[in-house]
Each structure stands twice: as C-alpha cells, then as structure tokens.
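Sample A.
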Amino acid sequence: MSLSSKFLRELVRGLTSALSLEELDSILQQELKRSLDEFTPGRTPHEILVSLILTAEQEGWLPLLISAVRRAHPYHPALVEISRRFGLAPTVTIQHSDKAPRPASSQRLEKILRNNLPFLDPARWREQMVRIEQQVCRIEMNLNPRGTGFLIAPDWVMTAYHVVQEIHQGLIAPQQVRVRFQHLLPPHQAVPAAGEEFALAKDWLVDWSPPSPAELADTEDTLPTPQEMDYAILRLAEPAGLLPVSSALPSSPPRGWMGLPGIFPAVNEEDALIIVQHPLGAPLKFALDTQGILGWNANRTRLLYRTNTQAGSSGSPCFTLDWQLIALHQRRLNNANQGCSMESIVRLMQEHGISLPENLD
C-alpha cells in the first residue's frame, strides 16, 4: 500500500492520539527490535513520527508497526480505522440469501446496520466486534488446525466436542494441543501473524456433551436429545482472559471473555447471522448473512442457517446482528449449516453443575 499524504497525516494523528513517544518506543523495542532513537536526532515529535512511518513503509515493516500499536490499544477508534483501511483487521464477508459471499466495505456494512438496527450506534457495534476478535481462537493439534473456539471464562474455551474427541479418547495427547488467539493476516506478509498461543491445563476437560448418533453417522435421521449438544469446555494452563491482549506489551488491556447469558433472544427465519471462525484453519474471518437464519429443528436444540462456513469452522460462535450469542457452529447438512443452541447448551451446563463468571465488560 503506497501512502498518500492524507493517509500519512491520519497515521500521525492516530499515533499521536493513542500513545506517547515513550510508549511507542517501548512497543518498537519489544515487538520490532527497533528504537525510536533511530528517528529522533534534532526533530520535533511530529517529524519523528513522519520519519518513523516513512522508514517503516520503505523497509516493508509498516504493517507490523500498525499491528503492534493496535495490539497495545485494540479499542482505540483511530487505530481500529487505520487497521481496517490497511487490511489488518479480520476479513468480513457479507452474503444475502443464496448469493455468493463478498468482502464487505465499511460503507456497505454500516448500511446493513442502519437498515436492520436503526437505533444502533455503529461505533459501539465495531467496538464489540473488536472485543470478540480478541476472544475467538484457533484450536490446533500437533501444529495442525482442527477447529475454532472462544473464551467463556478467564481460562475456559468452548468448542464443539467432536473437535476434541480424539483428545478425550486418548488418541492425541493434551500436550500436543494449542489454542491460538489473534491469528490474523497482515498484508504483504508471507506468513500470518502468529498471535498468542496457550496450552491446555493438566485437568483440561471441564465439561462436555457428545453429538447425537445420527450426527456421528453424518445423517439427519433422528433428532438429537437435549443431552446431545456436541460441546466441550477446555481449561487452559493460563487465564488468557485476564492476561494482556499482547504478551509483549503488559500495558495492553486484558483479553476478556464472552459472558453466557441466562436469557437468549428470539430469532426468526431470515434474520441475520454472524459466524466468527477460522475456516480451513485460515486467519480469523467474520461471515455475515443478512438473511442467514432458516429456523430451528423440531425440538429447538439445533439452529439451521445459510451463513457460509468451511472445515475448521466447527466450534465457532454464532451471533445475531447485535452480537447476541445464540449458537455453536457444528456441521454442514445437505442444504444448510447447523449449530447447537446456546440456550440448550447453557441449560445442560447448569444440569451438570457448571457455573460461569460474568465477563469483564
């Protein structure tokens, strides 16, 4: 991306509003092994920032600089907008009914929000999107991506049980499992940003429920029972939700986690649905279908929808357009995708004696 004079000014303003030169120098040293001293002799703060940005662009590490600063201040509006314009935020795709999904522009996304949620503040909506971005993870076994998960407590990750079934059965050692947050794709980089990885605790399985026999056989013959909700709660070796978003920057805010509500929203056919996922193990993506929901199965344990997914999306959180968690993505059917009702999951967790803390928000 070649910097225009206008975008250069926006970058300087964004950095100036977000952090001091002292904090910027700390970020440079810890994340990029550079020092602000390289850009300071005889210059004003404005000139230092211009020199830093232009040098980073010429040497090819401007995306890394923007990513590092954003990790330190993930919710700062100017840095969020700069990251989005520079392609450093997760991809958002939008589909409408049966049409193919397309990458979303900021203008198109805000038009959808205005049309469907006229009283919603787009800035608050984007802030919640950024929070969720920090809390969704890729689940890896022996360095290979296997599914998606999300934090529901400081050290608990929820995913689909079938994603981790081989661990539970002793076929894969828990020590070979990692969960990776902030697996994003900076532009101009051959390798996606590694993100922050965490191991499982020794007593790693907090709670679980299997899929139905019909689902294991990949058929649609019988309804799953309320005890067959295909979820697992994994305990991490560290409280990822309480730790800074960037381990290299202790001053960055805590990651947080998604609180599971006691009351869930009613949803109707052709309501919008958002799935936050790592399809095919790829960097984090947001898939939004403006008419995604098809309805519930007969006993309301499974939600059916059109919203696009791929292998690796199992365990992804599914949200209404105003970020209310309603389902856990499970599998692909012949003519739809299917997720496990979060309301049914929470009810079963309560039957199992599992209680959760509130989130940090």
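Sample B.
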Amino acid sequence: MNVVNMSTILSRLRLWMKDTGGQRDFVHRPEFQALLEALCEQIRRGMAPGPRQLCNTLHNLAVLGLLRDRRVSECGSGRVSSLHETVHRLCAEIVKLSEWIGREGISTHLAMSVWACATMRLPAPPLFDAVVSQRDRLAREGGSQDHSLTLWAFATAGVRAVSLFQSIDAHCDRTVREGIGQHIANSVWSFAVLRINCPGFARRLEETAESFVKRAAPNDLAITAWAMAVLGERTPRLLAAVLGEGRRIVSTGAPKNIATTTWAFSEALVDAGEFCALVDSHASRIVREGKVIDLVTLLTAFAHLGIRAPGLLEALSAYGGKRLLSEGCAAQEFANTLWAVAVLGDWGRVESGVLEELDSRLVSLLLATERGGGASVPVSLSPSSSPLLQESQLSQWHSFRLAAALEAPHLKLRHPPEELCRHRPHSLSQSEGLCEHGREQKFCKECGGAATAIESGTAGVRGQAETGIESTSRSPSIAASSYTHGDVSRSLLRLGWQHQVEIPVVSHTHSHQLGWQCDTKLYLDCACPETRVAIEVQGPSHFLRDLEGRLTRRQTGRTLFKNRMTRKLGWRLVEIDLRDWGRHRSEDARFAFLLEKLRSVGADIPCT
C-alpha cells in the first residue's frame, strides 16, 4: 500500500468518526498503529507524496485527537504509549519536509498544516517558518478560512509573526466581504492575542458594521468587539451596531458571550449604560446558566465602567459566591470579585457571610503563593508566580479591605496576615489598572515565545509591555495626562502652595489606625499631608468615552473608587479636569483657577 492510499484511509476514518458522533475506538487497535508506523516509514525513506497528502495527514491526526487523548498519551504509570510515540515520529517526519511543503503547497494545505500542529500542541518551528516565507502568496491567494486558520494557529502556538499578520490584514477584504462571522472573529481574535494591530480589518468592519452585526452570531460579535477594544482600534459604528443588537445578544447569547461583549465595552471604556442595565436585569439567569468566570468578568467590567450592578451582586450573594468557593477557582478570580464589590460600593446587596468566606479563601491563596506554595494553588487565569500578577492581586485585596473597613465595618474579617502587608515598591503605573483578565494564559516553549492565549469567548486580557503592541489609542491620552499633572504641580509651586507628588492615599497614620499596613497602589497627584488637601488631575483615562471616542464627563469606576476612598480617609479633595485646565492659557488665569479650587475645599491660601 502506498502513502497516498494510507493518507486516504486516515481521511475516511476521520469522516467515519464524524458520522458516528465521535466514535473512535479504532485508534486503540493494533492495526491502526501499524498503519501509522508504515506511513511514517515510507515518508522517512523518501517516498512522500505531494504536500496535499502530507498536510491532510497532519490535519486528520489533529481531528482524531490522538495527542489530546490520555489513553493514547499514557500507558500505565504515566509512561508514554507506543501509539503516542508513533504519532510524534510521523509528525516529525512530515515537519522535516516543511520547506518543500511551504514552497509547493497551496494556501489551504499550509493553513491546515499549521492549524493541525497548533491543535496538537506539536513543536514545529520549521513549518511555521515555511508558512511565514510564503506570507504574500498565502495572503493573496488564500480564502477567508485559510486566513483565519493560519492566524489562529500562530496565535495559539504563540508565534508572533508580525509580517505574516500584516500581509493578511492588507488582504482582509475577501474575509470581511464574505461575512462569515466565525472566520472574522477568529482572525481578529488572533491579532488581539498577539497584540498586533489590524487597521485593515478595523476599517473594513467599520464600513460593513451594520450588515456584519445583523448576520453574526452572538459569540462572533463578542469576540470581534473584544478584539477591537483590546487593540485600541477605533470602531464606533461597530460598537454602535453591537449596542443596537443588545437585546438579541442578551436574550439569545450564551453567558460567556454576554460577559465578553460587556468586557469589550469595559476595555474600550465606552459608556454602555443601557446595555449594562439590560445585562444586569438578566443577571440571575446568566449566573445560573453560565460559568463562574462569566460572573467574575461581568462584575469586573461593571466596576471598571463605574456602573451599578444590583442584579449581579444579588446573584453573587445567592449562588455565585458558593460556586466560587466550591469550584476550585484561582486567586485572581477571588481578587477580581472582591475588588469589584469594593468599587461598586453597594455592600447591602451581598450577604456578609459570602464576602467573609470569599475574603478568607483569597487570603489563604495569597499566603500559599507568598510562602512559596504557589504550585499547589489552582491557577486558571495566569501564572501565580508572576510578580506583576501577585502585586495586582494584593493591591486588589488591600483595596477591598480598605473599603470594607471604611464602609462595611460590620464584616467579620480575619486580621490581615503580616506577610500580605509588607511595604512593596510602587511597581504598577496608574495606567495599568488593577487586574489581569482572561481565561487561560498559555506559554508555548516549543514554538519559541510566549503569548497570552484567550479561550474563545473569554473575558479579555490586559496585556502590557511584554506583548509589544505597536500602538493604542490610550497612549497619547496617558502622556497628555502626565504632562498636565506636572504642569499643575509647577503652577502650584509658583503660586506658593507647597506639596508633595505621588504620595499614597493611605498614609502611615491611616495604616496605624487600621491596625495593618495598607498598600492599595493608589497615589495622589499633589497633596499637602499637613493640611490634608489633595489635588487629583483627571486626564482622559479617568473618563468614559462615547461611541465616537469623545470624552464624556462620567468618571471610570476606578476613578470614582479612588476619589471615594480619598474623601473617606479625611482628605479634602480637589479634582481638576484636564479639559478645564486646558482652557486657561495664561499664568494669571491658571493662578486664579487654582485659587478658586483650593478655596472650594477650605484650603489655606498662600499670600500672593
């Protein structure tokens, strides 16, 4: 029997498995392993057929799920089975021919081959390199499915091939024109996972927003909106169209789709009050039918947007909290939940016992990581060994504990352990936010590099510098805010008002009163500790935006929470909107503006 016939048999077996609803006991028969061994030997001896048969073989092996089946992978006491070894040898022989496959194979075969390797988590750098070398031909000749499979494979394997992605983005017209929601969603999801901008997709989706949104399934809408938000691509028509389909998304979409769509608006800091109100009105059903991560994602998104969530909080109290405690969730999920409760500040919606149990579990998980026992802690979002992530979780917990002490003293929380209250460097910038989000963070050592890979329909991810995103719409805003902050500080000094910059909201005196060292990673722009006067410069990142990207006057949840805690700690807070500051050009006008602001909180005015 020649190689072509053997490859054909694999294809027929794959189709038979599909027709029988997944029946594949045949893979454990010795005859099947003998077939694979014979195929491997013929390829090794140089009797390989064309690229089509080789790529089909990889594809069939992936669909049959051989490397994902524990019964195939292991053979008693954790030993690797002989069938598993045979599959690996066969794939390795095919990968050796990568350059030839890349040169001779058509775009469909190239897409199938890398998709198969990514699906099987098979190390195949030569094959991925071969596809990259054919990027222009693949982008030009490939169909929408070829493009989406290729992009998905590179994103899943963590191979950040910018040139390939840019080539496909430049030829995205066919994908968007065909309007197959799954192909579009998988494509832009891949760009977002690897933090590679996709201006071509963004432009074409804007042009066809209404028709795409009406045809696409809720899952595809959610992923597409999330990807555009993560990348900072301005797509106002797309977001408006998604909002227009809000009732359909909430009434027919799965909980994970609703959560992902809500997170997309949160990621873009778009004021989506009506949509969020609709989601909250269906909170009970969403939480009952969805996964715990969906509830956590929704609560965190509402908190970021500063939008009330009475329904979600009541659902957390009724059964969401019990599920968090019983389903082996990671520290990040507990941290996100408690942080969201603190930011929303609607303490009466959640039973005290639920919050006390959630806090106790989070403390145990944080202590396990802090004491070096992180390996035994369940992790579903990100590696617990990440210093940034650990700091993020701690700052969230400190924020919850601070808010609870000031606003919910009835809670019976255990005294904070000393290990979790040590002073830590100011390592998180205010633009980075409090938390990292996503369902799963995969690292592919075999394919060279790491990428944050989010399971389809996930909540989202806040990747930072390590992902190397080329540009985002927020960077200029952050820079403008930092410049204005310095400008205000210099004007205050010239005015004669002495102050310090970037000091913690929670002072040592406050920590002493609390009885533990509180470090929320919240800092005041300008403050005079002696007179308890603080000035906060509210830049673009402190406000929600409308669908056109214009700043509104509605502050983000993080800003509202910081201001609330600042005032409750006894600071006399002055808020300066960057837009108001910009209207005062001369020094005299700025002095008058600052004096008026200081007088409004009864601050001591320097002699001028």
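B remarks: The domain at 475-600 is CATH 3.40.960 (Endonuclease; Chain A). The CA atoms of residues 229 and 268 lie 5 Å apart.
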